[in-house]
Amino acid sequence: MKKAIAPPKIYVGLLGKTNVGKSTFFSAATLIPVKIENRPFVTLEPSTGIAYVRKPCVHRELGLGGCTPVTSICINGERFIPIVLVDLPGLVRDAHKGRGLGNRFLDSIRQADALIHVVDASGSTDEDGRPVKPGFRNPVDDVLAIEYEYEEWMYGIVSRDWPRFSRGLDHMNPGQIVDSLTQRLSGLSIAREHVVKALTLSKLDGVKPSSWREEELKVFIHNLRVVAKPIVIAANKIDVPEAADILKEMKKRLPDRIIIPVSALAELILRRAAEKNLIEYLPGDPAFRIKSSSSITQQQLKALESVSRVLKEFGSTGVQQTLNSVVFDALNRIVVYPVEDSSSYRDSKGNTLPDAYLVPNGTKVVELAYMVHTDLGKRFLYAIDAKTKQRVGRDYVLKDGDVVEVVAAV
Predict the structure, then answer these.
(1) Domain 149-224 has what CATH class?
(2) Which residues pair with 55 in a beta bridge?
(3) Which of 97, 141, 142, 312 is surrounded by the most beta carbons within 10 Å?
(4) What confidence tens digit (pLDDT) does each residue in 243-302 have?
(5) How far apart are CA 174 and CA 177, in angstroms?
(6) Are 398 and 334 in contact (CB under 8 A)?
(7) Residue ranges per domain, the chain?
(8) Domain 11-140+231-328: which topology?
(9) Are 40 and 105 in contact, with CB atoms under 8 Å apart?
(10) Closest listed residue to residue 403, CA positions, set 360, 352, 332, 329
(11) Taking Cα atoms as reference points, which of 395, 388, 190 lies closest to residue 404?
């Protein structure tokens, strides 16, 4: 069976104003405290890095002694699956009007499948990122500001020449309307299914586009942004005392958002200590273990003690949880394991469970075959559920943790 070089990439954009800890989050998320022989996606732009989502590896469920990943990592029974993290250029007010790096910033968002918005949960940075007294600024305003900037930018693109464009849509059937809208939005990396869902949420499917008022077009744009560019909020600096009350208010005022309490600095301290072999720690763990106190300086010990307080109060630093949430919650992805031999769970080179694919929930097995290799999809005959050893047809909908062998015509 021919194989693709690597599973499809997921791009997650990291955004936030100056001094909120975005760079610290990026550094912590992309520093893996283990040696990696075959790092995926090695050809990257300077502002991009590899982060990993964490999931219990299926080899434990299968009762196997271990696995030999090729495009991911397995440590202590936990599978770490790579995603591309893109550190987006600085965000400022009126970015949609071209202020600062506005156009570059907004164009960078276009390339992302989802976004992580790092905000200062301690309220110690003003609207332009200048340091202020903790509690001075409400980060809810920053959340609403980025949503406004992006939606205004999208609206400017979609509304251009809208009266003439919308009159042309009136003479099309519903499917053609969706196709035309998708084509108009293709430059924003928005897919057909996003348009369909946004029309439904906006209650505009079946309504003549030329009759849409400005408010209705903006509602459509809002829903399109929500489904096409989902955002997870990383409420950073949660270890600052003022952050506790601010976090409560954020969750109260933004009940429909995913908000994760985060201490990016605590995570960076842990990952650097693990990299130096001073502690045992896996990203996302609720605790760590010092290997030898004699090899740690007083300054390092003091830093680790402060991190311990964060872990005790919040259960984690929140960085790994944010990465997991953006992929598994916001993007609604599941993990599946394609293999070449369903009886041994191996590929042709003898690797056990070599690949872990992050696929949309609802993906059919024939669609997975195309992801592995185009020829495999074209010649698809059936698949074998490696757990049950049963044959499944092309329309079988994959479940989280499925291990499947695709059988194709020679």
Answers:
(1) mainly alpha
(2) 79
(3) 142
(4) 999 999 999 999 999 999 999 999 999 999 999 999 999 999 999 999 987 888 899 999
(5) 5
(6) yes
(7) 11-140+231-328, 149-224, 331-408
(8) Rossmann fold (3.40.50)
(9) no
(10) 352
(11) 388
| Residue matched to tokens 């015509």 | 409
pLDDT band at 125 (very low <50, low <70, confident <90, very high): very high
CA triple 50-52-55, angle to 5 deg:
165
Three-point CA angle 276, 278, 279, nearest 5° = 115
Q: Is 370 helix (H, G, I), strand (E, B) or coil?
A: helix
Question: Are the beta carbons of 21 and 118 closer than 8 angstroms?
Answer: yes
Phi/psi class of residue 94: alpha, beta or left (left: φ > 0; alpha: ψ in -120 to 50)?
left
The 3-state DSSP class for residue 215 equals: helix
Dihedral sign, CA of 219, 221, 224, 228?
A: negative
Strands 78-87 and 73-75: antiparallel
Burial of 201 (0-12, 13-18, 19+ CB in 10 A): middle
The residue behind tokens 């196709």 is 179
Beta pairing, strands 380-385 & 390-392: antiparallel
Cα gap 137→120, rounded to integer Å: 9
Tokens of 236: 């950073």
